[in-house]
Amino acid sequence: MRLLVARCEVRYSGRLTAILPEAVRLLILKADGSVLIHDDAGGYKPLNWMTGPTFMEELGDVLVVRKAKAEDTLEIRLVEVLSDVVQDMGESAALQKDGVERDLQELLAASPSALGEALTLVKREWATEVGPVDLMCKDDDGEWVAVEIKRVGTIEAVEQLTRYLGFIREDPAKAGCRGVLAAQSIKPQAVALAESREIRCAEVDLAVLRGEREPDLTLFG
Amino acid sequence: MRLLVARCEVRYSGRLTAILPEAVRLLILKADGSVLIHDDAGGYKPLNWMTGPTFMEELGDVLVVRKAKAEDTLEIRLVEVLSDVVQDMGESAALQKDGVERDLQELLAASPSALGEALTLVKREWATEVGPVDLMCKDDDGEWVAVEIKRVGTIEAVEQLTRYLGFIREDPAKAGCRGVLAAQSIKPQAVALAESREIRCAEVDLAVLRGEREPDLTLFG
DNA sequence: GCCTAGGTCCCGTGT
DNA sequence: ACACGGGGCCTAGGC
Question: Nearest nucleotide by C1' from A15 CA?
Answer without folding.
Answer: D8
